[in-house]
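SEQUENCE-TO-STRUCTURE ENTRY
===========================

Subject: a protein chain together with a token-level encoding of how that chain folds.

Sequence line: the amino acid chain in single-letter code, read from start to end.

Question of interest: how does this chain fold, as expressed in backbone structure tokens?
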Amino acid sequence: MSTITDTPLDRAGLLELLARPQPPTRFELCTFDDEDLSNLDLSGIQFEACSLARTHLKSAILTDTLWQRCKIGQGNFELADLTVARFIACDLHMSNWARSRLSSAHMEDCKLIGASFIEARTLGLTLRHCPLVGANLRGLSFRKQHLDQLNLSDADLGGCDFRDARFSGGSLQGASLKGAQFHGADLRDTDIGNLTIHDLTTSLRGAILSSEQAEQLIASLGVQVI
């Protein structure tokens, strides 16, 4: 494995490295901040503790890439192909994934606060232990998935499909649920926040709640349970 370590790189420098007879397959502690890496083929490359703040990766080919402990705040992945990509312990706050391909991708322990996934293709995407506070997940499908410790507080979940999903921990506090589907979803271990009657009779119709959650909801309506 050929590794480039602790090097600031721009687009031209990266292209030069990739044109070598034996191009690097791993970048460690490298800096790509504010660079335009759009449309590049970086498939299979590993990034370890690199900084890519505000980096443009629009329409890049990032299939089977591995990103560990990278700082990619406000990174732009619009239209990128991230099939089977893996992100571990990365800072991805305010990142843009619009119309990207995230099929069978995996994100774990990643900071995704304020991230936008508008029209992303997410079949098989797994998210674990990720704060998604204020994120835009409108229209995504999480059907039958195990959602482990996802903080979805204040997120836009409009039109999302959570049918038969199982939530372990996490929060829906303040999330927008308009048009979302939760039939068969197990929410007993999740902070569901202060839901309205409308939420209960539309989006959350058919969801599984604990007796404690049910009592909390009834109490929030001003009804005394004895």
About this structure: The first helix runs from residue 11 to 18. The beta strands are 3-5, 26-28, 46-48, 66-68, 86-88, 106-108, 126-128, 146-148, 166-168. The helical segments are 11-18, 197-201, 211-220.
